[in-house]
Aminoglycoside phosphotransferase domain-containing protein (Planotetraspora mira), 298 residues
Amino acid sequence: MGPHRMPAAEVDVSPGLVRRLLAAQQPDLAHLPVEVMANGWDNVMCRVGDVLVARLPRREVAARLLVHEQRWLPVLEPRLPLPVPAPVRNGQPDLGYPWPWSIVPFLPGDVAARKPPADLRDAAVSLAGFLGALHTPAAPDAPVNPHRGIPLADRSATVTQNLSVLGRLVDHRAVMRVWEAAAAVPTWGRPPSWVHGDLHPANILIDRGRISGVIDFGDITSGDPATDLSVAWMLLPADCHDAFQNAYRAAAEYVPDDHIWARARGWALALSLAFLAHSADNPLIAEIGQRTINAVLA
């Protein structure tokens, strides 16, 4: 069957549309130059002047996620040790554009998927400290994401589906051996934690060789933090995993056990299959998926 392409945009987001929305709703910003920075699965990012970015959903499902960012990221930002793009202004549907949108600060750097950290052990410690600060008990009304933060075994049907899409591109026996072992591990038994939900090397910024920010909190949710800890297999070589685990253990408010790392490896496998199965026109995500599955199965 082969990998699928990235979902098509439901609305065309252009610099012209952004300029019109700014003129109508944020007139003090309307004089600033606007240019497209990135056109992703869910959102279009447009640079607005030197220090701001407009973030506009390109699909209806992403609009619901953007509202979660608007509600919760400003609450979480003060305690996080790395910069995050907490919205500074919220836009409304207007001028034929049907969904909420945000103005967020511009964070310098390139994504780790294109520009890896210069010192991977330093990156392991920095990222673990960030996750330890994030992974605290979630608010009672925190978002619930049906795909992230859930019991790992609940991803089994999706794993099987993605394997079917990928066919001979992956070793089915090796994948299922690792998957079945991870899915059998005891589930998260503590109160639901805050979870980034989409933490991979294309959502980690690198500036001057070091991690300089974490972006794209659209999948923010409550649940099992093992979802986020899967980033170790996506970004870090095996000889940095101990540094990552030790730094996370020092930063977290709870005591991580061996089960959480086993589930994290399972999450890395599940997400790598999803990346590979849906990246026919996105080589950056395909590369993350291939790197991750290689690390998990090594």
Observations:
- The chain has two domains: 15-105, 110-297.
